[in-house]
Amino acid sequence: MTDHAQWDELAAGHALDALEPDDEERFAAHLTGCDECATTLGDFTLVAAQLGSLAEGGPEAPPSWQQVRAGIIGSSAHVTDLGTARRRRATHLLAAAAVIVMLAGGGVAGWQLAGHGSGRGRASTVALASCRQLVGCREIKLHTASGASPAVVTVNADRATVVPLSLAAAPAGRIYVLWQMPRDGSPIPVSEFRDTTRQTAAVPLPSRYDDTAAFAISVESAAVTPSRPTHVLAVGNTT
User: Fold this and answer.
1) Long-range contacts of residues 149-152, Cβ cutoff 8 Å, at least 24 apart
2) CATH class for domain 136-237?
3) Quick one: which of 26, 112, 114, 139 has the fewest CB in 10 Å?
4) Based on the number of CB atoms within 10 Å of its own CB, is 23 exposed (0-12), middle (13-18) or buried (19 or more)?
5) What is the pTM of this model?
6) What is the pLDDT of residues 47-70, one digit of tens each?
């Protein structure tokens, strides 16, 4: 295990709320000075929330994260020997950490589309449900001039994701660009994307969310990196 691999495992355990007190204290002390772990923890927490929002289908509500967590790491309530309980917990935690690391690295949205539900609607529902389970995650619905809502921007810890709702695939030679529109200043490009079947990867905002008046999506030429939006498709205010 590399030096940082141990912190990745502890970050996954923290996202699962499954660390022993001494490990929790050790990880918290490390986290205060490690930007890489802060980013990793944000990704793992998002994965944990997405797992918790998945339903097996049917009219019943999605399982809670507590139920999903119990299914992953199990329960040691019936284990009387403390040493045995901790060894079992460590084994479950290692397996759970591996699952979360794999999903975070491979792209949860793709995994959802492949094995849980069908089509864009399912992926969008899961992505938005995930945001609603994260404290501080914000949803900004974008609207066209006709009032339609082709996409939602979610922002968590100053990292933005585009969740397409009814956004058609970008035409050949064109791309979509997400713009951050500060209260003072010109629009800033945040990310580019063409795939509208799943949410985009979370990327850091160029400017603080608190200083943002709106987000917008424009359609641009794929051959030139845009410096300003030329054909705005949809806009959403942050307030």
Assistant:
1) 149/234, 150/217, 150/233, 150/234, 151/217, 151/234, 152/124, 152/128, 152/236
2) mainly beta
3) 114
4) middle
5) 0.54
6) 555 555 443 344 444 444 455 455
